[in-house]
Amino acid sequence: MMTNLSPNTIETPVLDVKGLEAGYGSVQILYGIDLYVDPGEFVTIIGPNGCGKSTFLKAIFGLATHYKGTVEHNGSDVSGWRTDRLVERGIAYVPQVDNVFPSLTVRENMQMGGIRLSAPRLADGIERVCWTFPDLVPRMSDLAASLSGGERQMLAISRALISNPSFLLLDEPTAALSPKYQQQIMGCIDSLRNQGLTVLLVEQNARLSLARSDRGYIFSGGKVVHTGSAATILDDPQIGEYFLGVQG
Ligand SMILES: Nc1ncnc2c1ncn2[C@@H]1O[C@H](COP(=O)(O)OP(=O)(O)O)[C@@H](O)[C@H]1O
Ligand SMILES: [Mg+2]
Q1: Pairing verdict, β 42-46 and 198-202
Q2: 31, 35, 54: which to mutate for ligand 1, most atoms within 8 A of CB?
Q3: Spatial separation of the C-alpha atoms in residues 3 and 45, rounded to whole Å
Q4: Is the residue at 210 inside a domain?
């Protein structure tokens, strides 16, 4: 059932990963991942718990141990690069857990997201994310701990957006949210995409995410076991049964 899609030959992919092997110290988790994301694409990774989805995003963002294979960003080899250098290239990442500082205010959390920026760029960044997430504006002086789950997730995404990235890695942004907030977060991601961001998303709510994705990848046991257009994955009864779960 493997569809052999390869990057289109005209545009340089934003992300082009080949044969990536990575893990944590001596514990190998990923075994030869091939994955690309073209400019402006929205690509979703799904797969069972513990199969290496989060590790893959961490490996791209310099937060896991890189053993082998290449990670190219906009045509440059960035394999094994440090996180701060990847941020400078316009890559941002929203972790699955612990993605805000609960004891800081909303504004302070946003400031932490742009800690390396000059004061004017930081102010610009905060203004920009306030446009994207107007619900956070009245909460600017409140502690992040007081936010609802959905608001927290918006704040986590805001922090990543302060640096004005062009490529966003998102790890399960709708996990543990009510359906209303799931829709709201997905709506926010849609609008980021309309602003030109390229998005690579890991998502448990596979149907919700694939419904607005261009393509999808299914991971299992640290490998890609299937890839194809999002529509094909959604329509495949075999995949539906195993990976898309009860929500369908
Ligand atoms: N910091 C770590 N050190 C060692 N092993 C880890 C670490 N974080 C995750 N793992 C292990 O890596 C495997 C893949 O985890 P993860 O990438 O989080 O999976 P997923 O996001 O697909 O649920 C799991 O077996 C997990 O226990
Ligand atoms: Mg995970």
Answers
A1: parallel
A2: 54
A3: 15
A4: yes
Shortest-distance ligand to the CA of residue 97: 2
Lowest mean pLDDT among 61-70, 184-193, 209-218: 184-193
123 within domain boundaries: no
CA of 211 to the centre of ligand 2 (A): 20
Residue 219 lies in a domain: yes
Asked whether 188 and 201 are in contact (CB, 8 A), the reply is no
Domains of the chain: total? 1
Q: Is residue 201 part of a domain?
A: yes
CATH of the domain at 232: 3.40.50.300
Query: What pLDDT digit, counting tens, does each position of 60-87 carry?
Result: 999 999 999 999 999 999 999 999 999 9
Structure tokens at 81: 């690069």
Asked whether 51 lines ligand 1 (CB < 6 A), one says yes
Please write the tens of the pLDDT for every residue from 158-179: 999 999 999 999 999 998 898 9
pLDDT digits (tens, 9 = 90+) for 116-131: 889 999 999 999 999 9
